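Revision sheet: structure tokens.
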Amino acid sequence: MATVSQTAYEDERGAGWLVFASTMLGLAGIMSVLDGIVALSKSKFYVADATFLFSDLRTWGWIVLILGALLIVAAGGILAGSQFGRWFGIIAAGLSAISQFAFMQAYPFWTLLIFTCDLLVIYGLAIYGGRSTTD
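Predicted:
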């Protein structure tokens, strides 16, 4: 049986993970939006002659830009404390992780950074997102 202090500790740790997840989701969203804008401008920033899963860099630029916008909206929903925001954040982070994994040919290290952020967000939301931080 959990004591009052153990329950309070779990709530505090869960609140920390939710703030971390929403912050990282917002940062991953901003980074994804920047990735999409740079890809659409056909910048020399990305690896030359990269082969993608399907289509070209411009198509992936649009995909990553749209997913970045979804991540930013999901971060706002999580900060608002919505259960829908939690599930929307998990789905958006999962889609972002998959798309970043497929976008890896363009810029591998940057993509791994965003992919790692997405995985940590999914963990934080899945484990601690269902807990109520207010009484």
